[in-house]
């Protein structure tokens, strides 16, 4: 007790303006602050860890490649829809996805080009048919059309230059000439699946004559941004061949030794570990999962020069 009184006298000498009452109040405040800090350090943290999957898929067979005569009468030759073979392919791929993936898809994000939107609709139609076909391959992976959310993303659009888009509009630098109208595109998507509240990563088309390095940056930024925005969800991104190629080459060891080819509706599958503590999260780098010949991605060894 004498020791406490001495401590109080010393403190009062250092802070002479404090009355005994104010001294006691400050002492109590310091005590409770220290107690709360200690309790915070001792309180257990509940970290939740899970695997996040991102599937980057190429669209199905485009109509102008199957029927070149379509171009002569097409009002928008730069934006072909799927051919019938492409629609069939999307439906058939959807029937195989549950067994191939082994995890559910929570969100589908689609390039604004019509062939990608048609592919998304075909996939959803194929997966909706699961209940009608008892012989269909099953697994833990599926897209539930009643729960999945679909949105449009310019960042997943085609490589924006004359080499990738062979029939651009007369004034390709003017974005209005391309005729992309997001509300009209969204009208093609079932209302119960559409999520038009999503803020896009890119809200407009790239600058015309986009280079491959710039497109590579765009695709990788879009994929990473979407994954970080929805860290608790598995994503299916429906895009173009260049985006799938970029995904594979970026995450494939010794990628320079291979030529990368992908079939229509071929897809690359990325996976990472995510640890959440409330809203904040930490994530590892993405790893590319082996295709095992099922995903339509072909990594061919480069031939030696003669």
Automatic annotation (TrEMBL):
Sorted alphabetically, which SUPFAM superfamilies does this protein's record hold? Answer: Phosphoglycerate mutase-like (SSF53254)
**Gene3D superfamilies found in the cross-reference section:** Phosphoglycerate mutase-like
Q: Which domain of life is it from?
A: Eukaryota
What Pfam families has UniProt attached to this entry? His_Phos_1
InterPro entries, per database record:
His_Pase_superF_clade-1 (IPR013078), His_PPase_superfam (IPR029033), Phosphatase_SH3-domain (IPR051710), PRIB5 (IPR012398)
Protein's name in the database: Phosphoglycerate mutase family protein
Task: Report the source organism.
Answer: Corymbia citriodora subsp. variegata
Traced from the root, the source organism's taxonomic lineage reads: Eukaryota, Viridiplantae, Streptophyta, Embryophyta, Tracheophyta
């Amino acid at each position: 007790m004498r020791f406490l009184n001495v401590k109080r006298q010393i403190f009062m000498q250092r802070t002479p303006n404090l009355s005994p009452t104010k001294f006691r109040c400050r002492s109590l405040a310091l005590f409770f602050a220290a107690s709360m800090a200690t309790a915070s350090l001792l309180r257990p943290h509940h970290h939740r860890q899970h695997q996040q999957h991102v599937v980057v898929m190429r669209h199905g067979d485009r109509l102008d490649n199957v029927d070149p005569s379509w171009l002569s009468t097409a009002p928008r030759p730069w934006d072909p829809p799927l051919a019938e073979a492409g629609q069939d392919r999307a439906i058939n791929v959807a029937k195989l996805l549950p067994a191939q993936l082994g995890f559910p898809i929570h969100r589908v994000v689609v390039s604004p080009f019509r062939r990608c939107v048609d592919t998304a609709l075909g996939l959803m139609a194929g997966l909706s048919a699961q209940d009608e076909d008892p012989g269909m391959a099953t697994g833990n992976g599926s897209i539930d059309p009643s729960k999945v959310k679909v949105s449009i993303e310019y960042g997943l659009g085609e490589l924006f230059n004359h080499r990738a888009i062979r029939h651009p509009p007369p004034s390709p630098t003017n974005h209005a000439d391309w005729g992309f109208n997001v509300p009209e595109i969204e009208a093609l998507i079932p209302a119960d699946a559409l999520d038009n509240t999503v803020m896009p990563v890119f809200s407009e088309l790239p600058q015309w004559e986009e280079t491959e390095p710039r497109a590579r940056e765009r695709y990788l930024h879009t994929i990473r941004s979407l994954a970080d925005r929805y860290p608790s969800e598995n994503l299916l991104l429906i895009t173009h061949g260049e985006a799938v190629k970029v995904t594979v080459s970026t995450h494939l060891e010794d990628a320079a030794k291979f030529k990368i080819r992908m079939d229509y509706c071929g897809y690359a599958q990325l996976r990472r570990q995510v640890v959440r503590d409330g809203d904040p999260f930490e994530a590892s780098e993405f790893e590319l999962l082996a295709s095992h010949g099922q995903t339509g991605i072909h990594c061919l060894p480069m031939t030696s020069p003669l």
